[in-house]
């Protein structure tokens, strides 16, 4: 344990061929984890080798969303991550007892994240997606330190209030000099079955607002990558452990998520 700090993280090397995306949001419940698992599944379906790190200590919902119940195994000094839907998955939840809340503090979190990146046998990944806790907390700084070349994806709802906090979460990358790959607006609208009318349950414009705000703050173009509609079946699919893009590829939400994955 003592030499954790010296252990090198393969993805952090300038020569690393793995693209790392850290998925961030201002607040919880906006669909950050749902977006993460669906982007990951869509990328894996295209033939990419994809890993997912669930670093959302407060939420850690990724294993459930991917239907992973297996625990990681240990081979020599490496941690072998369970796989599901062609994805390698590691989660804080796999290292806690039962459903206990995690009360780790900054330095412990940093070390956990470091271990996820350095001690887990990921193999040669094309893409690593990291589901961060909501907000602008310590973990965003840790990611910047541990994987300086990680790119940020910001998830927000269309709501004005959510957009403001999401923008703040994204703006942290100005200090850490990380690239913000884009903004994904989730829960953008709802279309009732048998209708083609969009209902904007959470208002409109949040995603564009965040994209514009970040473009201005960072002095670099931050695009709005997609607007994912609300779909009850998406929630059901994630409760059942199947990414919606795989279970219902024709749905509008799946198509948008797939387009976002292809655009990265
Ligand atoms: P976060 O990671 O931001 O806390 P989650 O991904 O856990 O958010 O999503 C919160 C809840 O909303 C989950 O029950 C999820 O299934 C549901 N959800 C997320 N996005 C959508 C969507 N586009 N349509 C319907 N339900 C959604």
TrEMBL record:
Boundaries of the shown chain within the full protein: 97 to 360 of 379
Chain coiled-coil ranges: none
Protein name, per record: Iron-sulfur cluster carrier protein
The family this protein is said to belong to: In the N-terminal section; belongs to the MIP18 family. Belongs to the Mrp/NBP35 ATP-binding proteins family.
Residues holding ATP: 26-33
GO biological process: iron-sulfur cluster assembly
Biological role stated in the UniProt entry: Binds and transfers iron-sulfur (Fe-S) clusters to target apoproteins. Can hydrolyze ATP.
Assembly and oligomerization: Homodimer.
